Every structure is written in structure tokens, then in C-alpha cells.
Description:
Layout lengths: L1 H19 L4 H8 L8 H21 L20 H17 L3 H9 L3 H22 L1
Amino acid sequence: MKRFSEFLIGLLFGLGLILSGMGNPGKVIAFLDLAGAWDPSLAFVMGGAVLVAFVAFRIARTRSQAFFGDAMKLPTSRDLDTRLVAGSLVFGVGWGLAGFCPGPAIMSVGAGHVQAAIFVVAMIAGMLIVQLFQKR
Length: 136
């Protein structure tokens, strides 16, 4: 049952990405183009996501167990350090240049988009490089 629920949640997430246009790099880049033909529609998508996450975290704080009985593991750190800020900047620049963030990129690879596959390969390479540096 747990795997089936995970599948349904992933399917719902993917459908939401498709319906919102997050899988379309042109729409994402138009959202980020504040000085040009700005498309504000993705702000509503992000606002909706923030609202859902806010409610979910408020509910999660009141629980000691996750839905399927595992221990509830919520983030506890509130520190802003160099790694967090640098990672956020790299994420934002990559999103702006490619028009993809990780979720929509993986969805777009499944739809056969070559640009998304290149992005995902580069993303995985970046994660591996970070792991190598962290081990030092």
C-alpha cells in the first residue's frame, strides 16, 4: 500500500506540473523575464505550492508518526550558512538558464525531451561533484 500511495502522489505531482506549465521551459523563462514579456502565471502555481506546504507542515508538527507509522522527521535547522546560500544561487541560475528545476526536468525526460535529459545528466553530475568535495 505504501508504494502504491507513493506512486499516486508522484502521478499527482507530475500531472500538476503538466497542467501548470512547469514542464515547459519557455513558460518558466517567460516567468523569470521580468524586463521582457513577463508571464506571472507561475507565481500562482508557486503560491499554491507554498500554501499547501504551509498547511502540511502545520499538521505534521502536531503528529509524532507519519501516515504509514514511520517516525516523523521534520527539519530542525534554521541556520543560513554559505552552503545553503551558494546552493540556492546555483539552483536559481540553473533554473533561469535551462528553464527546468529538478521535478519538471525528470517529468520532461519521461516525455522524451532531449533538453531535459541533458539537464538531468548535468544535475546528477553536479550532485556527484558536490559529494566528492564533501568527502574531502
